[in-house]
Amino acid sequence: MSTRTPHAPVPHAPTPSHTIGPFYGYALPFPGGPEAAPYAHPDTVTVHGRVLDGAGAPVPDALLEFWGPDADGQLPQQGGSLRRDPVTGGFLGRNGVDFTGFARVATDADGHWAIRTLRPGARGPHAPYLSVCVFARGLTHHLFTRVYVPGDSPATGTDPLLAALPPERRATLLATAEPHATYRFDLRLQGPDETVFLEFS
Amino acid sequence: MSESTRTVPRQPAPAGELTQADIDRRMAREREAYEKGLAEGAEPSHHPRRDYAPYRSSALRHPTQPPVAVDTRLDPEAAELSSPAFGDTDVTELDSDLTRQHQGEPLGERITVSGRLLDREGRPVRGQLIELWQANASGRYAHQRDQHPAPLDPNFTGVGRVLTGDDGSYAFTTIKPGAYPWRNHANAWRPAHIHFSLFGSAFTQRLVTQMYFPGDPLFAYDPILQSVTDEAARARLVAAYDHDLSRPERSLGYRWDIVLDGPAATWIEEGR
């Protein structure tokens, strides 16, 4: 790395990724994982959809993680997503008050998933979005994407990522509004309507 | 599991099913193509290819469009530059000792796995969540869909969690998992491994991977490990046996340091 100063630490080679495999289901999902919104919070939104493979078939063994800000655009630094119960060795669930910004959900047999979180607020030049990390059996390295949630924000015109995408690709990142503060977002791992996936540098 | 299921003899490979030799040839082709690229000046690949045909489940589950680059240096407000936080309520003391989660002791070889969680600059990732899961000593997961006719162990579930220390350190006590068969091809076996899930100081650093044990004769046959086509990168998935970590009359010690890829916003000297 010729751009580094002689005293900078030597970069460490990263540990390679591996597939999550088929048997994470008794280890990673946790009660309350999809329910990131505090109880009865007025900014609660439901986001749901399906994960589909290159043949359009549902992916019944994907795990999705969502990370996003509260309605003011603030990213919490708050633990308590998977509160453990030291009495039973089980889970207590979230405390219903704190917002951790983190949701985890496994797909069902139809490849469907749903989370309830707070409507994300805009940050900087961005339209409001939730960051998504996708894991699945058969997927050797997780995939990052974003679900843009339509709202009051001027949104999509100025967002640096969306603005750089051709319209048909951009559409794969936009959730569709449904009644009752619910948004639909399907993830296509492969194929003509393949979701835009991201690489951060 | 019923008695009848347990006593079914292994079926010969159905006509048309891929053999290990078929998979070996495909893995060799991938390896040769990778090494040819290196010789021609390509950068080493740290991560597995998503379209690695010898791992057949990847066929319909990898994107065909290149990923869209997000340069976080130009985008300090990207949510992905920060990470979910976990705290003392998310982990109990027993979570890091998988041998003490039931009434009795699990069967198998008791081991410890310890090391440090670091970023690309070698800086410790502090106070973050590590999750792990694994098969039992017989190579069976405590998962309804695992139909490998090997015994479940009522004293072993195989799930653990821990928060890293201020120096990025972590330690688990568990038992050494067994190898197990899977259906990628005829006579396919996974080398013994432990699944790890790791959070960094940024969501960009998220990692799920598998740790292997040194000297496993199944490495060369396994398309999941070989999906990492770079030899040095594969070696980073193998823990080291460390006799100084073995505890007399108790457990064998393995060391495995984990380095997270991906950019982060800033590194906070005094922790969170």
TrEMBL record, chain A:
Ranges for domain Intradiol ring-cleavage dioxygenases: 44-153
Enzyme class: oxidoreductase
Record's keyword terms, sorted: Dioxygenase, Oxidoreductase
EC number: 1.13.11.3
Entry's Gene Ontology molecular function annotations: protocatechuate 3,4-dioxygenase activity
Pfam families: Dioxygenase_C (PF00775)
NCBIfam families: protocat_alph
Family membership noted in the UniProt record: Belongs to the intradiol ring-cleavage dioxygenase family.
Name of this chain's protein: Protocatechuate 3,4-dioxygenase subunit alpha
Species per Swiss-Prot/TrEMBL record: Streptomyces cavernicola
Lineage: Bacteria, Bacillati, Actinomycetota, Actinomycetes, Kitasatosporales
Gene field: pcaG
TrEMBL record, chain B:
Record-annotated Intradiol ring-cleavage dioxygenases domain positions: 113-141
Composition skew (Basic and acidic residues), residue ranges: 22-53
Annotated GO MF terms: protocatechuate 3,4-dioxygenase activity
Pfam families in UniProt: Dioxygenase_C, PCDO_beta_N
PROSITE patterns reported for this sequence: INTRADIOL_DIOXYGENAS
Origin: domain of life: Bacteria
Keywords associated with the record: Dioxygenase, Oxidoreductase
Enzyme class, spelled out: oxidoreductase
Residue numbers spanned by region Disordered: 1-70
Record EC number: 1.13.11.3
InterPro entries: Intradiol_dOase_C, Intradiol_dOase_core, Intradiol_RC_Dioxygenase, PCDO_beta_N, Protocat_dOase_b
Family membership: Belongs to the intradiol ring-cleavage dioxygenase family.
Classification via PANTHER family: DIOXYGENASE, PUTATIVE (AFU_ORTHOLOGUE AFUA_2G02910)-RELATED, INTRADIOL RING-CLEAVAGE DIOXYGENASES DOMAIN-CONTAINING PROTEIN
Descriptive protein name: Protocatechuate 3,4-dioxygenase subunit beta
Source organism of this protein record: Streptomyces cavernicola
